[in-house]
Each structure stands twice: as structure tokens, then as C-alpha cells.
Amino acid sequence: MKTRIVADSSCNLLELSDMDFISVPLSIRTDQDEFIDNNKLDVDRMVEHLLTHRGRSYTACPSLSDWESAFEGAEQICVFPITSALSGSCNGANIARAEHLASHPEKKIHIVNTLSAGPEITLAVWKLREFLIAGMEFEAACREIDKYIQKTSLVFALKSVHNFAQNGRISKLAATASGVLGIHVVGKASTEGTLELCAKIRGTAKAYAELVQRMLQMGYRGGRALIGHVMNEAGAAAIRRALLHTFPNADVSYHPMRGLCSYYAEKNGILIGFERG
Ligand code: X90
After folding, report:
1. From the CA of 84, how far away is ligand 1's center (Å)?
2. Which atom of ligand 1 is nearest to the CA of 265?
3. DSSP β-bridge partners for residue 78
4. Where are the alpha helices (DSSP H) in the chain?
5. Using 50, 70 and 90 to split pLDDT, how confident is the model at 190?
6. Measured from the CB, is residue 84 less than 6 Å from ligand 1?
7. Is the model's pLDDT at 243 over the cut of 80?
8. Ligand 1 pocket test, candidate residues 229, 260, 274, most atoms within 8 A of CB
9. 12 pocket-lining for ligand 1 (C-beta < 6 Å)
10. What does the buried/exposed string (b/e) look like for 191-201 if buried means 16 or more CB atoms within 10 Å of the residue's CB?
11. Share of the chain above pLDDT 90, in %
12. Which of 157, 203, 236, 242 lies at a CB distance of 3.0 to 4.6 Å from 254, suitable for a disulfide?
């Protein structure tokens, strides 16, 4: 039976080695332009373009047919949409699943309730890949992933939450002081899958120290961590060094994020997905 992993583009992966994988793009829009978050998108150019863009901008989740075509041609599919608390992506995946199963009742489609975005989802995709490559049976692997994601978390440091406020995904009040020069908003994905803003920190070094501190408080003990950044490799590398200073054997990597996360996290933004315990 053909097994596939499908994620929407909030997971920042374009491919997955030794695994049938499809990324379903969200899109980022202004009144003039549309940026489809696929492998053709020049993310840095989009980020720079939006920095100088004066009008409104939006995002849109994948269409039902985008989801359904990602289900074609495989019999066992595990799906990773962005948090259902902030996007219609998960709802769309569920509707497409029901429609697809109506005409293909023999298939198995599992949708993971990620309640997160970016690197935390990537960790779960990587773990599922490991389970499947190790020969674990599909349904058992999906059950293990539902458990795994309970033991991972996401923290972030953003210099602006303007695009969240603009799109009504956090309150304007919560966004106060965001965008003020030198201020970083440090927060985490809440258990409901929304943004929880924890602190406003002046200065980059202090903000990153706060991120590491939060990770420790939340139970990071040197497991796998993935740092997603927006045009900020130096920042990601510095955080990685700080984590390795405390946990020399930790498996910490970083990568630039794709369009959707880069749009919301904005230039220099950092997201960290990590294993607890
Ligand atoms: O449906 C759509 O238009 C997409 C909306 C997505 C909104 C959330 C984007 C999150 C991107 C930014 C920081 C981490 C937030 C974690 C919350 C769970 C990542």
C-alpha cells in the first residue's frame, strides 16, 4: 500500500527524503499580488516586498481541491495542517478527507490536530517519517504521532505581530508595542493552538536568552529542537549555540522558513519547535 505524508506549507518543508511527501501551499496576498507558498516562491523577496508595501495583505488556506489532489494516488495518508484555531486549513483538510473517502472508502486518511505551526509540525513530520522507515504499521505510527505532538511545544520571538493584528488573529491590544524599534514579542503556542504572548523584551540578545529560558521552564531537556527563522540565520545560529552550551549533545538544527510562516513571523522572526522531557 502506498503511504504518503501531506502537510500544508506552514510546515516549511518542500520535500522529505525517502518518503512520498506533498506540501499543499497556502497563499499570501495583497490587493495587487499573490504569492503562492510553493517551491517557486522567492521568500526573501516576498518579505522585503511586504516590508515596503503600504496597503493591506492577507493569507488564504488551501482550497478543497488542493487538498483532494494531494490525496490522489496514495492509499494511506497522514496529513499535517496548521493549527485549526488560526486557519481554515485543517477544516478544509477534513472536508476534503470526507469527500475523498466517499469515493475511495478503502483508503486511510489521518489528520493530525497540530494546534501549532512551523517547526513543531516539522518535528512531527520527521518523527512520522522515522516511524514509517523503521517499518511501523501506518495506523500505529499515526497514533504515536498524536502522542508525540503532546510532548512537543513551540516558542517564538517576533519583532512585530502587525500581520497577525491586521488579519484579526490576535487582538489589537495584544499587539500594542509590537513594531516598536528594538522590542521583541516572546510567546508560545497555547494549548488551544493560539498565540500566547508572554513578554515584551528590549534587545535581541535578551530576547533570545528569554526564549531559551522559556524552553527550559516548559521542559526542554536536550531533545530535538528545530529553529525556523526569517532571513535571520545569525540569530538562529546564536540560539543553537546557547542551547548546545546547556545540552552539548542536543540535536538542534535551523532552517529558513517558507512563505506563510515568514509572512506572519516577519523579517528576523524566530520560531522554535522542541521536544519536552
Ligand atoms: O488560513 C490562513 O490564511 C492562514 C492563517 C495562519 C495564521 C497563523 C500563522 C502562524 C505562523 C507565526 C508564529 C507562531 C504562532 C504559533 C501559533 C500556534 C507562525
Report:
1. 10
2. 12
3. 5, 110
4. 43-52, 64-71, 89-103, 119-133, 138-148, 162-166, 204-218, 233-246, 259-265
5. very high
6. no
7. yes
8. 260
9. no
10. eebebebeebb
11. 91
12. 236
